[in-house]
Design goal:
The structure is a homodimer. Chain A is 73% helix and 0% strand. The first copy, chain A, is mainly alpha-helical. The N and C termini of chain A lie far apart (66 Å). Chains A and B meet through helix 6, helix 7, helix 8 and helix 9 of A and helix 6, helix 7, helix 8 and helix 9 of B. The structure holds a DNA duplex.
Amino acid sequence: MNRGMTAKGAATRGRIVEAAAQLIREHGAADTSLDDVRAASATSKSQLFHYFPEGRADLLVAVAEHEAAQVISAQMPWLDDLTTWESWQSWRGAVLRHYVELGDRCPLGVLTAELGKSSPQTRTVVSRLYDTWEAALARGAQAKGIDRPFEVARHILVTIQGGVVMLRATGRVAYLETGLDAALTPLAPGGSSPRL
Amino acid sequence: MNRGMTAKGAATRGRIVEAAAQLIREHGAADTSLDDVRAASATSKSQLFHYFPEGRADLLVAVAEHEAAQVISAQMPWLDDLTTWESWQSWRGAVLRHYVELGDRCPLGVLTAELGKSSPQTRTVVSRLYDTWEAALARGAQAKGIDRPFEVARHILVTIQGGVVMLRATGRVAYLETGLDAALTPLAPGGSSPRL
DNA sequence: CTCAGTTTGGACTATCCCCTCCAATCGTGG
DNA sequence: CCACGATTGGAGGGGATAGTCCAAACTGAG
């Protein structure tokens, strides 16, 4: 007896989420209609509401989860080896390249700027993303043996969010670039102790 | 002969912009309809389109300008006297109090997260706001006589944006708090030189 | 094969929303 | 007071959108 979703169903659901995520990255959540999603995913209305019974709200939560996973997986290759100044620098380069390439179409920008406030569930998704990310950065900062690793990690995270939303709003990458440089100075050789 | 707008007309236009700004702060631009604005400002449809001929797009630009002015004027009392560590600390306290009080209903969050990407005109408004703000912070950092005042100023601005959008998305104020502390360390007594 | 449960197509409704338009009123310079 | 432009009220069009519903097609476990 079939219980729940078959493989085909899961694939359809996946197509819907990915199409929605892409459209939202491109045009924003407000300018993405269910009909756009239906067309881009080659599905029908009944499928949308079959897999997302609460309709639009459900879909947005699924998109938020999908995008949060994207953000973390883009970070993964670096997060586990933030032990030396060189590895931090290499991570910095990767982050910059990543967001310069994505420009204003990045999953992170969507999450921080649009989806965070849209519902309690998406807010939870975004908060969890921040927690995971911050914890990984803090592990690296701790491994590096600097003072106040948690504050430094949090500050790096804040700088990334700021740089990315400012990139989204202005098209300028300088904010992210300068910000990351400054936020990483406590990790530089000889730069281990913020005063006070 | 009457040319352009009378005092009464200007007042009506002002009522419309303020009502729209308030609704957008509260519910977001996407969930604010022209009819909501009409009701909240006690005006009629024809008035909306009389004062904003391009309709919704025009109104959003006007709201962006209004909110940008709000952000700067909230900063004004402090921006001209960022010469000592104490004055920077007092500014920091004011910023924190301000955004904790506003929570997720702040003009800045709306600008950075929503309006920046909405049209080329609003993007210009937001960019100008950042430029003005950054320049004021840089003047203070220069007066304080630290190294790399422009980088430090920019980084402080990035930290504020990050802290505010994260406050918007999560409801947590810790990001802004910790971030500001860290971003201000180069201005602290004995903390004047970021390495490299 | 059988058949219950899953997946799918698509018509249909109800609502919302942006914007147009015309006529009425106001208020002000001359 | 007159005339003219600014201001206002509000009805209505045209179109998009979220969500409902039902019946057909498919799938896979037994």
